[in-house]
Amino acid sequence: MAAIHVATMTFARRLANVETIGQQDSAERALNKLARTYAMQMEALKRYRTGGEQKVTVQHVSVNEGGQAIVGNVNQAAGGTAAEKPVTTMRALSDARQQAMPIIETTRAQVVPLRTNKNDGG
User: What's the pTM?
Assistant: First the structure.
């Protein structure tokens, strides 16, 4: 990575001091390739340091009036019945002090003709 960085800086300096279009094209192409190589090396190093694993958890929770939601990880144990397991309660996500949001009725969308060109009068 250090060698790629030094080469990138060398070609950046060459690009700044070109005299002909051919020199400019050559230096620009080399600089572009070196900069892309360096970026790929940085990405590979990042993957190596983090183990290459990415975990993204997207959750959407909808709690209706009077309902409860569990905050945290939920693991279902294999076997047994609910009566055999101790019950633990957690705080609900909803705030019972606030009024529930009203349901908004959706109406059917109206069809609007598309104007295709400037001379169609629309």
Answer: 0.42
